[in-house]
Amino acid sequence: MTVKKNILSAIQPTGQMHLGNYLGAVQNWVKLQENYHCTYGVVDYHAMTMPYNAQELRKNTLDMVMSLVACGVKIENLFVQSLIPEHTELTWILNCMASYHELTRQTQFKDKMSLLEENISNSFITSGLFTYPVLQAADILIYHPHFVPVGKDQKQHIELSRNIANRFNYQFQTDYFREPQALFTEIPKVQSLADPAKKMSKSLGEKHCLFLFEEENTLRKKIKSAVTDVGDTSEGQISPGVENLFSIINSLGNKDLYKDLMKEYASGAKMYGKLKEGVATTVVPFVNALREKKEEIKEDKDFTEKIRASSAEIRKKAQKTLIEVREIVGLF
């Protein structure tokens, strides 16, 4: 009998989930549950590294849990990070295993710091923003996963986790922490509807995103106004906007429509209205079904207690790790 290997991944509760989030991560999380022992976290501590509103953070955290369950993530595989304080205790221990220079090289820290520095009215940069990759390493290592499913932009964080695990093991002459492997999967490229040169992102504004639980009328309006050709494409080359619309249809599994429309496009037909209608035909029923599922979840008065219970169960693994780590590093 084959023993299932462990998977760990997490997502920040930073507002509404959009189609890019789903196709880039959550869709894969759901599939991985079939063949692995999966542990997935909503990491609300991470959302504190940038300016935030306390009430919105609490609301967004619960909303993200509901969204994930609506998408097919099993609630027993989910935890809320702040309900498991062992993450932060392990972070301090691992902070003493990470070097200052490693953290200064983290590209996402540099990117977020640049954003804050550009905003003159709110340029305060927290030390949490600098050290959060160590918290991320603790999120991972505390559950001893074999694999961490990530996009290529997260590879550096996995390498840091591996470096810290290796340094811990070397310093204390143990093989306690497993060095997790990045699990790279084929991730569909979903670009902004309004600016196809950029990745779909909430930070760009609502017109750039198709949100996962959005109302049908606004979905159709955004799709209808999506950018297609902008006149800067070489002859015979598909424009980024058109390619993005085709990618959405294909990524959501409407293969026959994708093939038919691609064949028509390849023949030289300018059928952007038909292509956009194809996107709407694909996206709207998909989102409607998810929205109905989420509404059912919202009606469950016990849902908050269910995520507390699943977090408490998952916490037992974290507690075991901390007991063993404290012994290894010489704490009382």
Can you give me a brief rundown of this structure?
The chain has 332 residues and is mostly helical. It contains twelve helices and five strands. It has helices at residues 19-32, 54-71, 86-95, 100-104, 107-118, 127-141, 155-171, 216-224, 240-251, 255-266, 272-298, 303-329, and strands spanning 6-11, 37-42, 78-80, 147-150, 181-184.
CA radius of gyration is: 22 Å
Q: How many strands, which pairing sense, and closed or not: the largest β-sheet? A: 3 strands, parallel
pLDDT under 50 segments (min length 5)? none
The count of strands amounts to 5
State the distance separating the first and last CA atoms.
40 Å
Note the run of SSEs as H and E.
EHEHEHHHHEHEHHHHH
Please work out how many helical segments DSSP would assign. 12
Q: What's the arrangement of strands in the largest beta sheet?
A: 1-2-3
| 3D shape | globular
Which structural class do you get from the secondary structure elements?
Answer: mainly alpha
**Overall pLDDT:** 91
- What portion of the residues fall into strands of 2 or more residues? 5-15%
Helix content: 40-55%
